[in-house]
Amino acid sequence: TAVDQAETEHEKARSINASGPGILAEECKRIGAVFIHYSTDYVFDGNKGVPYLENDATAPLNFYGQSKLEGEQLVQQAGGDYLIFRTSWVYSMRGQGGFIAKVLQWSRQQETLRMVTDQIGNPTWARMLAETTAHIVARGQGYISERKGLYHLAGSGFASRLEWAKEILELD
């Protein structure tokens, strides 16, 4: 998820976000295993104005989004039993690298915080992703095989970075 780093380290980003998932999907197909891949809303340009659907045209604005889209395509080309989940703004209270931890840290270090208002997304709890995935996997490979494909799996609602930061600080 190192979006900025992907802009300067194209080979590394492509290896992690495209080639790696493609190889894993091919190996899963070879051994008859299910492959579950998490992708991103960065495959879109963000100009639609309403929520994107799975079959909407993609138009990544940066190399990170392009490399994630390439990964999706390689997984689909490999065939086999796969699920691709596009998600958005994944957060957790674990670790120190996420947006919530950063906002809380910044609020303790700075009197004024500056947040963008033009980035809109669906904050998605990592636990929700994990639990949903676990429920799907528990239904078995036949269930997945019948439903293989690409799905959007993200939190309901939406917020700008500013709106989300305000909510984080109000709940702190």
Q: Can you walk me through this structure?
A:
This protein has 172 residues and is of the alpha/beta class. Helix content is 50%, strand content 15%. It has seven helices and seven strands; from the N terminus they run H-H-E-H-E-E-H-E-E-H-H-E-E-H. The chain has a three-stranded parallel β-sheet, with helices on both faces. Helix 3 links the parallel strand 1 and strand 2. The relative contact order is 0.17.
Discrete helix count: 7
Strand-residue proportion: 15-25%
Strands, total number: 7
Reported for the largest beta sheet, the result is: 3 strands, parallel
Cα distance spanning the termini: 25 Å
General shape: globular
Name the helicity range: 40-55%
Give helix and strand order, one letter per element, not per position.
HHEHEEHEEHHEEH
Instruction: Pick out the low-confidence regions.
Output: none
Overall pLDDT score:
94
Read across the widest sheet, the strand sequence of neighbours is 1-2-6
The chain-level structural class is alpha/beta
Rg over C-alpha atoms, rounded to the nearest angstrom: 17 Å
